Amino acid sequence: MAEAGMRGVSRAGEGLRAYGLIAGMWIRSTMAYRASFVLTVVGNLLLTGLDFVTILLMFSQVDALGGWTLPEVALLYGLSVTAFGIAQLAFGSVAALGGRVRDGSFDTLLVRPVPVLAQVAADRFALRRVGRALQGVVVLGWALVAVEADWTVARVLLVPVTVVCGAVIFASLFVAGGAFQFWAQDAAEVQNAFTYGGTTLLQYPPTVFGRDLVRGVTFVLPLAFVNWVPAAYLLGRPYPLGLPDGAAFAGPLVAVVCVLPAAAVWRLGLRSYRSTGS
C-alpha cells in the first residue's frame, strides 16, 4: 500500500508539473500582447460584474431579499463568484473536451507521458478568466466590511477555507462534466447548467427558493457548502434545513466527497474512450 501511495504522489507531482509547464506556455503567449490582455481582463471583469449590478438594481426597490440585506447577499455573491472564478481559471478548459473527442485531437494527449487531465485542464489556459475571480474578491471584500458579524478567530479563518473548498467543489463539477463528454460529446451545455448555473443560483439567499431545491443543492449536489451554509454561520443565521451546528466547517469533507466521484468518473470515461469514429 505504501508503494502504491508513493506512485500516486509521484503521479500527482508529474501532473502538477505538466500543468504548470503547459499553462505557463499559454500565459507567455497571452502576455506577448499585454495591452490586449489588460483590455480583455477589464472587459471580462465588467461583463461578469453585470450580475452584481442586477442585485444592486433589485435592492434599489427593496430593503431585503428573502430576509437578507444587501451586504449579506453580497457576501453570498462574493463567496460564490470567487470560488467559481478560481475553479474556472484552473479547470475551465475541461469544458472543451467534447470538441477534442469529436475532431480526434484528444488522441494526441494519450501518447504523451503525462497525466491526461493535467493536459486537458491546462490546454489553452485563459488567464483572462482571472477577471471573474477578481470581481468576486472585490465584492467579497466589501461585503466582509459591510456585514454585521461577530468576527471571532473561527469566523475569520472560515472565509479563506470556504473559498478554497468552494473552488474544489466547482472544479470537481468541471472534471465530472468533462468526463461525461466522453460519452456525449455535445454535452458542454449540460455541464454549464451545473457550473455556471450553480454559481448563479448561489448568488441569492436560500430563503427565496423552494425547500426541495434547497434540499437537493445541500444533500444531492452539495453546492450549498460553497456559500449558503458557511455564510449562515458567519452571519449568525439559522442553517438551511436545520443542519447541525458544525455544518459550516464541513467544507473540506464535502470537497473531498466531491473530488472522489469526479476522479472516478474521469477514470471511467478515460477507460471507455475508443478514439474517433469508433
TrEMBL record:
Coiled coil: none annotated. The chain crosses the membrane at residues 37-62, 74-97, 133-151, 157-176, 213-235, 247-266. The keyword Lipoprotein does not apply. InterPro entries: ABC-2_transporter-like (IPR010390). Keywords: Membrane, Transmembrane, Transmembrane helix. It comes from the Bacteria. It holds the Pfam family ABC2_membrane_6. This is Transporter. It comes from Streptomyces pilosus.
